[in-house]
Write a structure and sequence with these properties.
heterodimer; A: 263 residues; mainly alpha; 8 helices; flat; B: 437 residues; alpha/beta; Beta Polymerase, domain 2; Rossmann fold; 6-stranded parallel sheet; 4-stranded antiparallel sheet; 17 helices; 57% helix; 12% strand; disordered C terminus
Chain lengths: 263, 437
């Protein structure tokens, strides 16, 4: 039952993404509405399947890579639904849905099993660490995408070359605020992830920090983001410079999540 | 019944003639009642704007009707018919139908795609309804026209591109700042242009406005007019760190604002974005200012260029809109069918029977509520009585209607349907039931 629903949800997200891209190309409003409905449907379905799954597997959850990616996709889709209804950024799906699809695909094809077999996961810190970590990943992705749209809009205004899509995208002000706010939330969650992570390390290994590449890279990303806020509030590095700075942090985060493994 | 349009527009007639032919609301009223009274057209509507004067109507013999309306126009406005004739155009049926669809969608307007005409047409229709000159044919037509115009506007977004320099500037400002509410502005120069800009800004909710001008009195009077504050010309640079929007339009020969000024201002305002609009010729702001981080400088040429791009965009959209208008007109004409008298909803016979059935039920209920003592069988007898009376009455007319519609090519059939619809007021069932009470 659950695999079937998961498959349907995956297909619905895929369809929503295609319809959103079709909206971009053909510029028909009905496509936008259709894409949003499909996303809502897929999101509700995924809420159900994740609920079922967690209910069945029980605590500790999200230990397998595929579960945590699926969780990330779910959070991002939820954020998209809020964004496209509340902030008058109707087109958000065009940019965010492809990212949701990437996470969904990772969830489906990732065979990796973090720690299911080892006894390490029995610490209560484990689940908290993973939840915070993947929550922050989703929000960083959102912030990254808002930053990209900002750069695109800013480029058009600065170069005085206005493309057709210009009218449909939000103002620089809104994009800048979305980007920074999401970054702030992601930063907070990442901090919580680091704190719970080291508490977990302490309970398992007896030390808060050990010789672990993933811990190291996460700290580097954290420092990048900390520098972003420092530059924004003191040197006034808002707008394009701020976005470019945050891109560095995002690259490190992405690299850490996708490539670097715990020792 | 055929649709027809007679009129003139900015495409066929000069302004002074359009002025002479314009109908004020009172004149529209009088004109419509005259058209009815002289039975020139059984249904009519007068659309009068500064760019066009048109009469839409229906008539069984449109050619004669068109001549009648032309004569009416010259009589009504006291102009010799010969003076008017060369400027008037006439459209009959297919062409007239299409014309209305195009006009309502703004495709026949001077500024293609403008939306004002839609409201003006609605107003014209309202007046026709009030004057009683809008019958079933016009009702059906105008409703379809309005529907189509809305659809064309929303699907092609033909009106979405701004076509004036000041409007382009306001939209750009909104793309930078989101809402303009609470944003501060500095106007450099108190000429006609900056006055216009001030009004635009005010309407977008950007009150704190500073005005600086070489003549301080002029700055003061303009500040008073736009609810702002006058600043001495030599002090305007002190405002720069505080303002989000700067509009310059002075006659200065040399640049008034240079990169150093803006660098300093941006440092003080912590790089919050600044939008500078330089509509002065020669320019008041050094173009190098645009290169500064988070500063956007647009001069008159930039804005003009955007207007031109938008004009091109609008023309492209107009092509699609034209196609849609033709489709809509064709589908409307198709819906009329060969027997264009049977308009709207079920055929006359069916509607006639429906109406009688409704009346029968209503009267039966009234009677039964007064005859409370009847038993079931007696009730059935009473109901049977009403039924058989209605059926007997309707038998012959329904049969006649059926044969008439079978012999469709017969032109008189249209008239029979129409007479019956009029006689029994089948066009508006609720109303007629109400009056039958």
């Amino acid at each position: 039952m659950i695999p079937l629903l998961t498959n349907i949800g995956f297909a619905l997200y895929g369809l929503a993404t295609l319809v959103a891209l079709a909206y971009w190309i053909f510029d028909k409003r009905a496509l936008l509405v259709g894409s949003r409905r499909l996303t809502t449907l897929a999101f509700l379905l995924q809420t159900l399947t994740i609920g079922f799954h967690v209910g069945k597997v029980g605590y500790p959850f999200l230990l397998e890579a595929r579960d945590s990616y699926s969780f990330s996709a779910w959070v991002l889709a939820g954020l998209l639904l809020i964004l496209s209804s509340k902030n008058r950024f109707e087109m958000a799906g065009v940019f965010i849905l492809p990212a949701v699809m990437i996470l969904e695909t990772l969830a489906r094809f990732s065979k990796e099993d973090y720690l299911g077999a080892t006894g390490l996961a029995n610490s209560p810190w484990a689940s908290a660490h993973i939840v915070f970590g993947f929550l922050s990943l989703s929000i960083f992705i959102l912030s990254f995408l808002m930053g990209i749209v900002y750069l695109f809009q800013e480029y058009q205004i600065k170069r005085k070359k206005i493309f057709k899509i210009f009218d449909k995208l939000p103002s620089l002000d809104l994009l800048d605020r979305l980007h920074a706010k999401a970054l702030g939330a992601g930063f907070l969650l990442l901090t919580l992830g680091i704190v719970t992570g080291s508490a977990w390390a302490k309970s398992v290994k007896g030390v808060y920090f050990f010789d672990d590449p993933r811990q190291l890279w996460t700290l580097i990303a954290w420092l990048c983001y900390a520098f972003f806020f420092q530059a924004r509030f003191t040197a006034g590095w808002r707008g394009r410079r701020g976005v470019l700075l945050s891109l560095i942090g995002f690259t490190v985060i992405l690299f850490t999540f996708l490539q670097v493994r715990h020792a | 019944m055929k649709y027809l349009t007679v009129g003139l527009s900015h495409k066929t007639a000069p302004l002074d003639l359009r002025e002479k032919l314009a109908f004020s609301p009172e004149k529209v009223k009088r004109g419509l009642s005259l058209l009815l009274a002289e039975s020139l057209a059984p249904e009519s509507l007068i659309l009068s704007t500064c760019n066009r004067v048109e009469i839409y109507g229906v008539s069984p013999e449109p050619e004669g009707c068109v001549q009648g309306i032309k004569a009416f126009l010259s009589r009504f406005h006291g102009l010799p018919e010969g003076d008017l004739e060369p400027f008037l155009y006439e459209r009959i049926h297919e062409e007239a139908v299409l014309h209305g669809f195009r006009v309502a969608a703004g495709l026949d307007s001077m500024v293609v795609g403008e939306s004002q005409i839609f409201g003006q047409m609605k107003e014209a229709y309202r007046m026709a309804q009030e004057a009683g000159s809008a019958g079933p044919h016009l009702n059906r037509y105008i409703h379809r026209v309005f529907q189509a115009a809305k659809k064309i506007r929303s699907e092609t977004e033909i009106g979405s591109l701004p076509l004036s320099v000041s409007y382009v500037a306001v939209l750009l400002a909104k793309k930078i700042f989101g809402s303009l509410e609470g944003r501060k502005a500095l106007l450099l120069g108190a000429g006609k242009m900056s006055e216009l800009a001030a009004l635009h800004l005010k309407s977008q909710g950007s009150p704190p406005i500073w005005v600086a001008n070489r003549s301080f009195e002029k700055a003061e009077s303009m500040a008073a007019a736009c609810g702002g504050q006058a600043v001495h010309f030599n002090d305007f640079k002190m405002c720069l760190p505080l303002v989000d929007v700067v509009i310059t339009s002075t006659a200065a020969e040399d640049y008034l604002i240079r990169p150093d000024d803006i660098h300093e201002a941006m440092r003080l305002r912590k790089n919050k974005p600044m939008f500078i609009i330089d509509i002065a010729v020669p320019r008041n702001v050094d173009p190098a200012v645009h290169r500064i981080f988070n500063v956007y400088l647009y001069d008159l040429d930039d804005l003009q260029g955007m207007v031109e791009t938008n004009l091109k965009g609008r023309r492209e959209k107009a092509v699609r809109a034209e196609a849609m208008a033709s489709e809509e007109a064709a589908s409307f004409l198709e819906g009329l069918g060969p027997d264009s008298a049977v308009l709207g909803g079920p055929p006359t016979a069916q509607r006639l029977a429906q109406k009688f059935e409704q009346l029968r039920r209503r009267e039966l209920e009234k009677a039964l509520s007064r005859l409370k003592d009847l038993n079931q069988k007696e009730k059935e007898v009473v109901e049977g009585l009403t039924l058989s009376i209605v059926n007997k009455i309707l038998h012959d007319p329904l049969l006649a209607l059926k044969t008439v519609s079978d012999l469709r090519p017969d032109p008189s059939s249209a008239d029979v349907h129409e007479i019956i619809q009029k006689l029994f007021r089948l066009d508006d069932t609720d109303d007629s039931l109400g009056s039958a009470k």
